[in-house]
Amino acid sequence: MSKITEIADVAPRDVYRKLDFIYDKVREFTYRREGALRDVDWERYGRRFATDSQTLTLNWPNRKKRASVAVQHLCAAHANSGFIVFGHLQFDPAGDMAQIEEGMAAKWGSGEGPLLETPWTPLDRFRVQEIPR
Questions:
Q1: Taking the model in full, what pTM does it have?
Q2: DSSP string covering 80-114, please?
């Protein structure tokens, strides 16, 4: 933030005000756009949806261990309108890396089955949140 204020020669207060303004506009747009989804005539526009998956490489958010982490991003869109119905990172921030690495070392190649005892899908963690008016 200090570099932005230095380069643009503005006070931090002004930058934060502009960020708040943009945040509010994005929320308003999202609320209107997602609200319109409730009124869609599926018979008219079709019921086809397309799904896609990308592998994103992110920096691990830990100062002690710097490493790139590959996560899957899953997305579904209405095929005719392009409206994004959901997007999800297949990543569990509550996971304990040491425990996961230990489990992988113990079970990798042993034929014991999946590494996770209770595998989850992206939809298990996806929840629609309504934006208040």
A1: 0.43
A2: TT--EEEEEEE--TT--HHHHHHHHHHHTTSS---
Q: Is the dihedral of CA 25, 29, 34, 39 positive or negative?
A: positive
- Cα 63 to Cα 65: distance, rounded to the nearest angstrom: 6
What is the gyration radius of the CA atoms in the chain, in angstroms? 21
Helix intervals (H) in the chain: 2-8, 12-37, 42-45, 97-107, 122-125
Count how many Cα atoms sit within 13 Å of the Cα of residue 26 in the half-sphere of its side chain. Answer: 6
Each residue's pLDDT tens digit, 34-62: 787 777 787 888 888 888 888 888 777 66
- Beta-bridged to residue 73, according to DSSP, are 54, 89
Contact 122, 74 (CB under 8 A): yes
Is the CB of residue 77 less than 8 Å from the CB of residue 62?
A: no
